[in-house]
Design goal:
This protein has 107 residues and is mainly alpha-helical. The protein has one domain. Helices cover 70% and strands 6% of the residues. The chain contains 4 helices and 2 strands. It has a two-stranded antiparallel ribbon. A hairpin with a 2-residue loop joins strand 1 and strand 2. Helix 1 packs antiparallel against helix 2 and helix 2 runs antiparallel to helix 3. The protein is elongated, with a radius of gyration of 25 Å.
Length: 107
């Protein structure tokens, strides 16, 4: 959140209080204008943030830890925290111990 957005939110809240106390049409108009402006600025800031995150993900020099932390931020920590299954030349490598035992013991 930028300082400008904080400033807009402060003005919006202040104007909301003024309108709540006075009920005047001019205060309502000003409150609605500040609400629309703050919503617009928040949407712009979110879009910039998402664009920055995707640009960082596209960077080939990004570290593994930073990559996965950005992925968690994007998906809202709703994805599994486990390491995904690796597939190489149609051979599936799994971290599941039962599958490993079956693969080792199979003739």
């Amino acid at each position: 959140m930028t300082g400008y957005i904080r400033y807009l939110l402060m003005l919006r809240n202040k104007m909301n209080g003024v309108f709540g106390r006075s009920g005047r049409l001019e205060d309502r108009t000003e409150r609605n204008r500040l609400r629309a402006l703050s919503k617009k600025e928040i949407r712009i800031a979110k879009a910039k943030y998402r664009a920055n995150q995707t640009a960082q993900l596209a960077d080939p020099n990004i570290g593994v830890k930073r990559y996965w932390s950005i992925m968690k931020e994007i998906y809202g920590n709703k994805i599994k925290a486990s390491i995904p299954t690796l597939i190489d030349d149609n051979v599936t490598y799994s971290t599941d111990t039962e599958i490993k035992i079956l693969v080792i013991l199979s003739p």
